[in-house]
Amino acid sequence: MPTYLHLVDYTAEGLAGLMADGGTGRTAALRTLAASLGGELLHVWWSAGEPDCVAIFELPDDVASLALEAKARASGAVADSFRAVRLMSAEEVDRLRTIAPEYHRPGTSPAESAGGGGRS
């Protein structure tokens, strides 16, 4: 199952909710949220700086990760700076190395771009 890193900044309302529920209460709520999407909360931490909260989830796919983000942002408790990052295991990186897509940079012919290098 894919792993996602979620970086969250609270709104004033969200911070008030964290203070009311406490860390263990919010952890339980995140576990329930992940389970409702067919996933699992792996870890959650709060920080004294930005972001306010870092959570790592295993979720079925990108759509589930986006659904989690949409639900959190729609609550008004988290800021629009919410970010989700798809994490890759060492095995996924190894698999990535075996894929050789055909591509050429804009404004060049395929022959000119052969050999890769440079930015797209």
Tell me what the structure shows.
This protein has 120 residues and is an alpha+beta fold. The protein has one domain (3-97): ACT domain (Alpha-Beta Plaits, 2-Layer Sandwich). Helix content is 42%, strand content 20%. It is built from 4 helices and 4 strands. The chain has a 4-stranded antiparallel β-sheet with strand order 2-3-1-4, with helices on one face. β2 (40-46) and β3 form a beta hairpin. The longest helix is centred in the N-terminal third of the chain and has 25 residues, at 12-36. The protein is elongated and about 60 Å long.
Specify the number of helices: 4
CATH class: Alpha Beta
How many domains, as an integer? 1
Average pLDDT: 92
User: Order of strands in the sheet with the most strands?
Assistant: 2-3-1-4
- Whole-angstrom Rg: 19 Å
Number of strands: 4
Give me the secondary-structure topology.
Elements: E1 3-8, H1 12-36, E2 40-46, E3 53-58, H2 62-74, E4 83-87, H3 90-97, H4 110-113
Antiparallel strand pairs: 1-3, 1-4, 2-3
